[in-house]
Amino acid sequence: DLQICQHRAPTCCTKKMEESYQAAVRRERTQSIQALNFELKYMIVGHITAFQEAFESLLRFAENRTSSLFETAYRPMAKEAAEPVKELFTDISLYILGAETTVESAVLRFFDSLFPLVYSRLINPGITDLSEDYTECLRLTRQDINPFGHYSKNMVTELSKSLWASRMLSQALSLGIEVINTTEHAALTKECSKALVKMQYCPHCQGLTLIRPCVGYCLNVMRGCLASVSELDAQWREYISTLEYLTNEMAASHDLEIALTGIRNSINEAILHAQLNGPQLSATVDKVCGQPKQQEGNLSSDNIVPVKEATETQTFVMAHASLNNKRREFINYMKRSRTFYASIAERLCDGDLVMRDSSTCWNGEDVV
C-alpha cells in the first residue's frame, strides 16, 4: 500500500512511515530555507537598526542646535518655542519611518506655531493679551501674510529632497524583510513533498540509510519545488538596484545630515526676515486680528541678535561617519545577494544533503 517508495524488492516501510517522512521533509525544507535566509535577514534587520540609531542621533543633534538658537539669540521666546521645536523633529522622525504625513505639513505647522511667539515676543514685545483667539488669529494670518518670506518654503524644499530618500530606504528595508519572511513560509505542494520523500527517504525503505541523492537529481527536485520562489529573481535584482539608487541619493548633494543641521540656520534667517519687516507685519495684523493690549513701556529686546553657527560636535561627526559607513557596508553586501533567489536550489543541494565525493548515489529509483 506504499504511495511513494514503491519498489520491486521487499521493504521495511509502511504507509504511515511515508506520511511521517512527508511531515519531516516539509519541516526540514522550511528550516533549511530559514538557515539560508538568516544571514540576509540579519543583515537587513541590523541595517534598519543601525540606520535608525544613527538617524535618531542626527535628529537629536539637530534638535539641540535648534533649541540652543532660541536659548542664546531669542531668549524671550525660548521657553515657549521648545514645544514647537520638539513637535517639528518628532514629525520629521515619523515621516522617515513611513507615517502618513508630509515634510511640508510638518514645517508649515512649525512656522504656524512660531509666528505668534515671534510677533508677541520680538516684533511687539509689549503685548500682554495673547489669548487663545488672538494666537489662533496670528496662526491663520501667517499663511496669508507670509512673515518668514521664502525661508519657510526653502526649508520645505531642502528637507523634502533629503528626507525622501531616507523615507524610501526605510520602507524598502521593511519590504525586504517581508519578502524574505514570505518565502520562508511558502507552502510545499503535495507533488513536491512526495518528490522530496522519494529523494531523501525512499533509500531508507531499502535499508540504505547512508546513501545520499545524486547532485543532478537533487537540483532537478529542488528547482521543481522552488519554481515559484526562484521566479522572484528578476524582481529581487531590481530591488537591489533600487536600494543602491536610494543609498546613493542619500549620500548625494541632498545630504540628510546637511539638511537636518541646516534647520537651525533656516529658522534663524526666517525670524530675522520677520523682524526686519516688523512694521508692515504689525499693520496687517492689526487690520486682521485687531490691536492687542500693550504693557506700559516696551520690554527691552536688546539681546535679540543672531548667533554664529555653533561648531560641529563630536556626536554629529560620529553619527555622520557611522551612517555613511553603514550605507557602504550594507549596499556592498546586498549587491552580493543579487542572485539569492536564482541560486536557492543550488544552495539547498550543497553540503551534507547530496553525495559529492563518492562513486555511488541515489537517483530516485536505485543506487547508481
TrEMBL record:
Pfam families: Glypican (PF01153). It is found in: Cell membrane. It comes from Herpetotheres cachinnans. One of its GO terms (cellular component) is plasma membrane. Belongs to the glypican family. It is a lipid-anchor; GPI-anchor. InterPro entries: Glypican, Glypican_CS. Keywords: Cell membrane, Glycoprotein, GPI-anchor, Heparan sulfate, Lipoprotein, Membrane, Proteoglycan, Signal. Cell surface proteoglycan. This is GPC5 protein. One of its GO terms (biological process) is regulation of protein localization to membrane.
